[in-house]
Structures are given as C-alpha cells and as structure tokens.
From TrEMBL:
Catalytic class of the enzyme: oxidoreductase
UniProt-listed InterPro entries: FAD-bd_FR_type, FNR_nucleotide-bd, Riboflavin_synthase-like_b-brl
Molecular function GO terms recorded: ferredoxin-NADP+ reductase activity
Keywords: Oxidoreductase
Lineage: Bacteria, Bacillati, Bacillota, Bacilli, Bacillales
Name assigned to this protein: Ferredoxin--NADP+ reductase
Species of the source: Alkalicoccobacillus murimartini
Keyword Oxidoreductase: yes
Start and end residues of each FAD-binding FR-type domain: 1-107
UniProt EC number: 1.18.1.2
Length: 233
C-alpha cells in the first residue's frame, strides 16, 4: 500500500462550518470523479497498529485537471479529535492519502441522472457535475437536489442551473420539501439516482425510492460493493 505524504497548499473557508483543504498532487497520482480516499493525520501509523482515530474516509471534491486534491469537510465547534487537529493545521503542514477508489463515477448510459445529497455530501458530487459540464456525452441531463438545514449552501457557483447544458440544481433546507421533491423526481422510472449522506439519510432515501418503484440497480451509493446488500437488499 502506497502512502502519499503531501502538503496542504490552500485552505478555503466555504461556509462558517465547512472548509476545503487543497493538497499538493503527488507525481503520477490520479483519480476519477466520485472518488474517496483514506485521509490521515500525522502519527496515524506511528505505532504497531494504525491509529484509526486519525484516519477518515473522505470524498475528493476536485477533478485531476484542477491540479490539487480537494478535501471538503464540516468542522463544528464541538468536534472529534480528528477534526480538532485538522482545524489547527496550516498551509505547508503534511497529511497522508492512501487507498483511493471511486464507487460513484458518472454513468454514461443515456439516462437522466439525479444527485441526492445532504449537507457536505455535495462535495462528492462536485467533480461529477464538473465532469458532466465539460463533457455531456451519453448523459441526458443532470439534476442535483441538496438539503442543508444550515442554509449555508455549498459550491453555489457550480451548482447553478444551466438549462442550455441540461443541468438543474435545487437547494432546500427542510425534510418535507426535500422528500416531496424526491417523490417528484422518482416519477422518472428509468433514471439513475445517486445518494450521498449519512447512513440514516441513505436508508430513508432508498426506502422512499423503492416505494416509488425505483429498482436497486438504479440507486448508486458511495459504498464498497460488499456493503451494498445491507442497504439495497
């Protein structure tokens, strides 16, 4: 397993609680849209066993052509040891990335694509949307629906409806509006539904989509293949 130790080259405050850490891109390191990586802090591999409290699964919120690995995360006032350390890191400090993999690349199957996310889950979809806007081949259209109760919506300059490119974006901040909209979107019985958020959020969305007649193979989750049955069966 190759571990890349890389420097933070920029920290962007997206909202009062959300930061994006842009990391140097190691030579030859590449990834595809919808990728996640193991993101680790100094000391995680200092002992005989890895210190799991210093490792997190994080989505990469950038594309390779942006020349930086982007990690976007919410850091609340009261937060874990991992987030506390992360909050105190500065430009030039080193972090580690390893085991990078994509469960949710953009499927180009001549269908409508629906991106359903909660809060900072939108970071997973940012590269998919950029990829689609750069090259729309074999995708009919893309619709993003994000719920964020904080009302501090993320990436609004990218998640902006562009009718000429067949891209629509919606932000809502309460569950009733969100689930009504999911019901409306699921009238498309042939669409592909990507869902990113907490496990509870996934379970609720899957139940609603299945009730509306959407098949498991139309639902795409940011989970390893062996984890899918526990959500979709």
């Amino acid at each position: 397993m190759q571990i890349h130790w890389i420097k933070i080259n920029k920290i962007i405050e997206e909202t009062p609680e959300v930061k994006t850490y842009l990391l140097d891109c190691p030579e030859g390191f590449t990834w595809e849209e919808g990728s996640h990586t193991h993101f680790a802090l100094e000391g995680f591999n200092a002992g005989e066993k890895p210190n799991r409290s210093l490792i997190r699964h994080m989505s990469i919120s950038t594309l390779p052509n942006e020349k930086s690995i982007g990690i976007t995360t919410r850091i609340r006032e009261q937060c874990s040891e991992f987030k506390t350390i992360l909050r105190n890191l500065n430009i030039g400090d080193e972090v580690a990335v390893f085991k990078t993999h994509s469960n949710v690349p953009l499927k180009r199957e001549n269908k409508n694509v629906y991106l359903l996310s909660s809060g900072v889950g939108l970071a997973t979809f940012r590269p998919l949307v950029l990829d689609y806007l750069e090259r729309a081949d074999n995708v009919n259209q893309v619709h993003s629906l994000n719920i964020d109760s904080s009302k501090d919506f993320l990436f609004t300059s990218i998640f902006e409806s562009a009718p000429d490119k067949k891209f629509t974006s919606q932000f809502v901040y309460n569950r009733n509006d969100y689930y009504e909209e999911v019901k409306h979107l699921s009238t498309d019985k042939d669409g592909l539904f990507y869902v990113v958020g907490s496990d509870e959020f996934l379970v609720q969305n899957i139940a609603l989509l299945r009730e509306q007649g959407i098949k498991p193979e139309q639902i795409i989750l940011d989970k390893h293949e062996q984890q899918l049955p526990e959500f979709l069966s």
